[in-house]
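Why this split exists: single-chain examples teach little about how molecules sit against one another. For that reason, every record in the complexes split bundles all components of an assembly together and asks for one structure covering all of them. Below is a record exactly as it appears in the raw files.
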Amino acid sequence: MHLIPCPYCGQRPQDEFHYRGDATVKRPAPDAGEQAFYDYVYTRENPRGWHDEWWHHYAGCRQWIKVRRNTLTHAVAASAGPADALPEATP
Amino acid sequence: MSAPDRRSRFPASQARKGGRSGDAPLAIVERPATLVQVTARKGRQAELAAAIGKALALELPEAGRVATAADKTALWLQPGSWLIEAPAGQRRVLPASLTQALNGIAAVVDQSHGRCIIEISGAEARAVLARLCRLDLHERAFAVGHSAATLVGHVSCLIHRADGETTCFRLLVGSTFAEWLLDEITAAAASYGWSFNSAGEAAA
């Protein structure tokens, strides 16, 4: 069982969550141009290692949370609420 | 005349029992209640806590906790949102009075019809729940006053431990999932034996 630390509920099994994609992409300015918006919507990194992701705790507090997960080992280093920043440094 | 939404969520279910007859059967009881969800408007959580304290003499609990005062209970749902539980008789009064008291501070939604409370008690209640729920519900980790929104039998539930001599867990589940959850619980309790009383027959 893979546990994800929800910042509100504590350690919870992964089947209470939905994966909601890359948490590092930022919406470009309205006048940033078509290519910037294409990248924002479609272009994603596929990192091997630490990655900041959105997870939705749909069966618990129903919040979207940010989780720093290692895509290689599934280890989770940190999690934070939707408006909070994950710590700068990765272990 | 009772309000139509105070009917049992198990209209076809008579009081019944099943499973093996043993020394410690599981008692499953549906509890009628008034349930009101209050959600703080942006940045007004402190005002909400103060207003609830004034209106109901109830302290809103922190995440994962339950607070009780007199005949009312507040259950944490999610950041900024709580469920207020009161006796079934307050169904007509409480939502209206809260709407008035929290005008502009919080969204008030009557959930009496939307949720169902299933109480399960007995010496083996925790063993039965262990077959349905992944959380550690031992007293060490999940004491009286703790609550958790989690999956029980693949259904979203708010679960908390009730105060009392016998082990008793209370599950708040969406009304339309109640029948399914009862089937799951009775199947999980078959080896201990169980009895079920719907709200109609339940002792107050």
